[in-house]
């Protein structure tokens, strides 16, 4: 088989009909039919039933399409890479990070980086920390920022930032008047919890259990930014990074210090056994310059 035959097959499966595939590929419908017939001869099994001028995919075609789709994902990436090389000859950088970082530190750091490298293509994905780690370990992304709850096997990890976490409280809530909250203040209080695997959640659970305190968990989410939005809506209180509270302060949310102190740690992740390029090194430099933003602001 050749790539053109596979491309025609992919177009037919994706668009549903040979005529539509012909339009997308800008070839004639007979050329589509011929390519499919040649492909069927090459692979040794029929891909479509022909009935009243229609091509109906066989079960074998659907299985084959799954494999073809995987290959096309790689081809699409190659085309995208070629376009980036054409449009941004000086390179590209791919950054994956946890949600809280993507809306706070990262925009500032990338703006500073962009001023140094205006022609570099930047790709950003905000994901859960475990996914960030996988993207870095596989080499799909160049730089990662993730919470320290992850297993760092397969990546190079260094401490990026440490913060004292705060309790986000809805404006007008009785607890909003207090500068410092303690475990007993949270007993029976409607509470928006981070995901069970989150290190900060586990540390808070340990502190509350030691004091015999049980808040009323009304919602769970892996994202601090979601916690803040829910707090702003008045659903409950939540433990968050002070960075994520900034857009909400004075807009329905109050940030209160919490004792005993609970800290979160963010890790900088790099692919293993790979020396960072100059562009990646410059990006890391800008990230580190902003890593102290908001850290330990309540100390």
Automatic annotation (TrEMBL):
<dbReference type="InterPro" id="IPR037424">
    <property type="entry name" value="NocR_PBP2"/>
</dbReference>
<keyword id="KW-0804">Transcription</keyword>
<keyword id="KW-0238">DNA-binding</keyword>
<protein>
    <submittedName>
        <fullName>LysR family transcriptional regulator</fullName>
    </submittedName>
</protein>
<dbReference type="InterPro" id="IPR005119">
    <property type="entry name" value="LysR_subst-bd"/>
</dbReference>
<comment type="similarity">
    <text>Belongs to the LysR transcriptional regulatory family.</text>
</comment>
<dbReference type="InterPro" id="IPR036388">
    <property type="entry name" value="WH-like_DNA-bd_sf"/>
</dbReference>
<dbReference type="InterPro" id="IPR000847">
    <property type="entry name" value="LysR_HTH_N"/>
</dbReference>
<dbReference type="InterPro" id="IPR036390">
    <property type="entry name" value="WH_DNA-bd_sf"/>
</dbReference>
<feature type="domain" description="HTH lysR-type">
    <location>
        <begin position="1"/>
        <end position="58"/>
    </location>
</feature>
<keyword id="KW-0805">Transcription regulation</keyword>
<dbReference type="Pfam" id="PF03466">
    <property type="entry name" value="LysR_substrate"/>
</dbReference>
<dbReference type="Pfam" id="PF00126">
    <property type="entry name" value="HTH_1"/>
</dbReference>
